[in-house]
Write a structure and sequence with these properties.
heterodimer; A: alpha/beta; TIM Barrel; 37% helix; 11% strand; B: mainly alpha; 67% helix; extended
């Protein structure tokens, strides 16, 4: 047997191993549940896969070498779409959305179209010394910042997000504090997201939030509003790592054995529509990563008269166990 | 290779209740209550458990509480320090018995 054959067989074996759990669809059926859309209140916009970091848990395998990046025409089409619908929340993500030069115009256009505009930031792209205008823009439009901050420990943080990211994150959070972010009564909301730094489930959200408040304030004088703990989704670069490290089987078992039927009602895909950098619609960013378009076919945002209809089915696969494990994923 | 300790045995722990269910129920209820948040947080309790697991050198407990510590938000630096705490106590316990040795030497020696 040659080496290529051996590697291929190993890959097939690993794939089989990750498939030993009950398929997500079957689990839903066993519990008499269906995954269907509710009223869509959130528009999530993925600006593209270009990122300055190559985080090992990234479900989209974003990074500096990625060419997928939203152009101005699609950004305009998305703003037009937001105008046709009445979204309560617009959630901008990537990649690192800060690296897309269409971001300022898009925020300016969207700010009058929804009461809450959020941006997901890795902090290092925002604070790379070239984007001070974005700090000011976010403040001016009251953009809610949702920042990745996995751990209070430098080693853990950098094992997930790359060398130097811990101190860069601390510096960015201190800068946001100077602007008023995270301070009571400022109207500038700063939320942190902590994803586990390996093949294990996230810690209790209230307990972690309390500890992060105490430690960040004591050590660096940093303030924030809320902290969310989310499980890592077994897709993209994180899935590759799970396979290579031999953790895929146990991780999938952990997610599937934590299935909570009550969490299905609250999963984010029921009230969100996600639009890709090319303007195509997905039920969530994870389905975008998995290549599962909304309604089973690629629908462009220009084809949509309004928000997706309540009661329409949501595409799903085994990665959906991430959002239904324990108390769920919001 | 066959070993006495098998990782797949850990999830079978509750099978210990098959011959004595009442006692097992009491133990597992107690166990659950001990690890629930009280005056100490669940994270702190897991760190204590991890440290004790090392002193009793139980591979099942080390496996379970390493994962538990990570899932409750501890990092490897904290977990390592916890192990040093019990190591210090364990080593100190040996060393302090040296006083007994000294007492005996003193009694027997001219």
């Amino acid at each position: 047997m040659n080496s290529a054959q051996s590697q291929q067989e190993k890959a097939v074996d690993l794939k089989k191993k990750s498939m030993t759990i009950e398929p997500f669809r079957q689990t839903l059926a066993t519990h008499g549940l269906k995954l269907e859309r509710d009223q869509t209140t959130t528009l999530q916009i993925n600006m593209g896969l270009l990122c300055n970091q190559t985080c090992r848990h990234c479900h989209l395998s974003a990074g500096p070498g990625r060419k997928e990046n939203m152009n101005s025409e699609t950004a305009d089409q998305i703003a037009d779409y937001a105008k046709r619908c009445s979204f309560e929340v617009i959630d901008i993500t990537g990649g690192a959305p800060e690296l897309n030069h269409n971001l300022p115009n898009l925020i300016e256009r969207l700010s009058s179209l929804a009461p809450r505009i959020m941006i997901r930031s890795n902090l290092s792209a925002l604070n790379d010394g070239k984007r001070d205008h974005l700090f000011e823009l976010f403040k001016e439009y009251g953009v809610v910042i949702v920042a990745s901050f996995p751990s209070l420990n430098q080693t853990q943080t950098e094992s997930q997000r790359g060398r130097g990211t811990f101190s860069m994150s601390i510096a960015a959070l201190r800068k946001l504090k100077v602007l008023g972010y995270g301070a009571d009564g400022s109207g500038l909301e700063l939320n942190l997201v902590s994803n586990p730094t390996g093949a294990f489930l996230p810690s209790s959200q209230p307990e972690t939030e309390k500890r992060f408040h105490q430690v960040l304030s004591k050590k660096w004088g940093i303030v924030f509003n809320n902290l969310f703990t989310f499980a890592n989704v077994p897709l993209g670069r994180f899935r590759d790592w799970l396979l290579k490290s031999g953790n895929i089987e146990k991780y999938m078992e952990k997610l599937s054995s934590g299935f909570n039927p009550c969490a299905v009602e609250g999963v984010m895909c029921r009230t969100m529509v996600s639009v890709s950098w090319e303007g195509y619609l997905y039920d969530c960013d994870f389905n975008l990563a998995r290549g599962l378009p909304m309604g089973g076919r690629k629908i462009h945002i220009t084809e949509m008269a309004g928000a997706p209809e309540s009661g329409s089915p949501i595409a799903g696969a085994d990665h959906c166990y991430t959002c239904t494990a324990g108390t769920g994923f919001t | 290779m066959e070993t006495y300790y098998k990782p797949e045995d850990l999830p079978k722990f509750e099978e210990i209740g098959k011959e004595a269910p009442d006692l097992a129920d009491k133990f597992f209820d107690y166990y659950g209550a001990v690890f629930s948040e009280g005056e100490l947080t669940e994270r702190e309790k897991s760190l204590i458990a991890l440290a004790v697991a090392h002193t009793i050198q139980c591979p099942y407990c080390i496996d379970a509480f390493t994962q538990s510590c990570l899932e409750k938000g501890s990092n490897v630096a904290e977990m390592t320090e916890a192990i040093h705490v019990v190591t210090a106590i364990r080593g100190g316990a040996s060393l302090v018995h040296g006083i007994q040795m000294r007492n005996i030497v003193e009694k027997l020696s001219m």
